Hints:
Helix content is 49%, strand content 12%. By secondary structure, it is mostly helical. The protein is globular, with a radius of gyration of 21 Å.
Amino acid sequence: MILNMGPQHPSTHGVLRVILEIDGENVVRIMPDIGYLHTGIEKTCEAKFYQQVVPLTDRIDYLCPLTNNLCYVLAVEKLLGLEIPPKAQWMRVLLNELTRINSHLVWLGTHAMDIGALTVFLYCFREREDILRLFEAVSGQRMMTSYFRIGGLALEPPLDFFEQTRKFADRFPPKVDEYENLLTGNPIWMMRTKGVAKLAPEDAIALGASGPTLRGSGVDFDLRRDIPYSGYENFKFKVPVSQEGDVFARYMCRVQELHESTAIVQQALDGMPEGPIKADAPKVVLPDREKMKTQMEALIYHFKIITEGFAVPEGEVYQAVESPRGEMGYYVVSDGTAKPYRAHMRAACLANMQTLPKMCEGRLLADVIAAIGSIDIVLGEIDR
Length: 384
């Protein structure tokens, strides 16, 4: 029998259509069908000034918009040869790790609910709300923050931001223990996840998997540690790796990452440098107020940047970062004008989704739900 699962199915984590060929309850063949959320964002980038592209990046992987912001601005800054002040770099790391926690909380809550554990969803969204309040405090927006800018940050963080963030980082680890008390040793959870949807390390590498999907198969690779960016070389953290390659292994990798990301947040708070949050590049970002002679001069600068953009030297660059789902990459081509000639996003979810046939063929139909949830896909990033 040929069976359609989605694109209006709650457990496909977005508008994913999965064409299943089944023999009773056994999956003979699985074919993912994408494109239902296509936005044309990559093409739209070509019609925008470089700074105007930042809000578009929020909407690709909408569960980690700040990570998209970071990857894009790092790529353009590499083309411009900009040196970013230490405070801006540490703030980027801090917010990037809060974004990772936020994304993993959405994943854990929805993945657990797919398999039948409703309580964890309510717990995860309780803590996620605290993170969204921090994002709103620093940027004015709960989700589509657009807070990172080419050359630094949009605004100085509010006065009590670091204090509120520290309070969250102190109370969050016991909450993760609560999630584990509900799931990790639960016999039903283990029955639905252990030995299910296995992915061999050689298959994970061949299919281009990255992030927890790759590390859950025993491949120890993390861009933050192996190809550091934005000052990650100044932070100490472990990269969780599991050898089993099943749904449970991918679950454990992400749960352990919640602890590691919290540790990075605490290190960022402890060592936050003083100084400016923007590079000294008046043609790219608005200078600090004390460097402006008059208010009119500031308005003219601001007007030019907004209405005319700024030229970027000719060239091409690829920048990759470690998103909650794996390697997110931005390939940006400049023709020397104020708008990108080409912008292409390397979506971690697209490569990770290629692993579904390896995971599911020969398994039971119910295991498809567990497999899709375990790779943590976001269709906005896949279709873009």
